[in-house]
Design brief:
- The protein is mainly beta.
- The chain is built from two helices and 15 strands.
- Strand 1, helix 2 (58-63) and strand 2 (72-75) form a beta-alpha-beta unit.
- The protein is globular and about 45 Å long.
- The N and C termini lie far apart (47 Å).
- Residues 1-17 have low confidence and may be disordered.
Length: 188
């Protein structure tokens, strides 16, 4: 890997304004074709500390987070990630995962098997501004939430080939769950 050409001014211009106070580590994920200025293609071998050296997958970024620290993961515009039957597991407490971009340029998570799910099993996780699509019919549950204080904000769950059995499945542990400004649309 080449030396970093990270330029915070260019990075902030690419990301846009934010009103977040971050107490933990900030990571970046992106595998889209629209690279930031001086950026490399996303790879889990990158540092993940800048948009120019983003990780390739959300799961890898989550594995680099520390519980309760208040880490944030920014997912770049145009990022697309398949969620196979093995799931995307968000299991580190107090992590925010924020999708950047608008409309079709938001990051996309595509569930590719009936058993695929976005499993949120740690408290105080937030998932914001994602397009979540179903690539198969009768997905058992698009999301399963089994932890308290979870937030799902400004996401769109869109069925493209068939409707899921359940969009969001919760357990009794999902106390104080907040789902706001989300859109759910079926294939028909």
């Amino acid at each position: 890997m080449a030396p970093s050409t990270f330029d915070v001014v260019k990075a902030n211009a690419y990301i846009g304004p934010t009103n977040r106070v971050v107490t933990g580590q900030t990571f970046y994920v992106g595998n889209g074709t629209a690279l930031p200025p001086g950026g490399y293609t996303g790879s889990d071998g990158n540092s993940g500390f800048s948009p120019q050296e983003a990780f390739a997958t959300i799961a890898y970024a989550v594995s680099k987070c520390s519980a309760a620290r208040g880490d944030i993961i920014y997912v770049m515009p145009g990022h697309a990630e398949s969620v196979p039957a093995a799931d995307l597991t968000l299991n580190v407490t107090n992590v925010s995962i924020v999708g950047l971009g608008r409309g079709a340029f938001r990051p996309t998570l595509n569930l590719t098997a009936t058993g695929s799910t976005i499993a949120i099993s740690a408290a105080a996780v937030s998932l914001e501004n994602f397009l979540i699509t179903g690539g198969v019919d009768l997905i058992t549950a698009v999301m399963t939430i089994s932890a308290a204080d979870v937030k799902i904000l400004n996401c769109e769950i869109r069925s493209v080939t068939g409707d899921p059995v359940v969009s969001i499945l919760t357990t009794a542990a999902a106390a104080r769950l907040e789902i706001a400004d989300c859109r759910f649309s079926g294939s028909a």
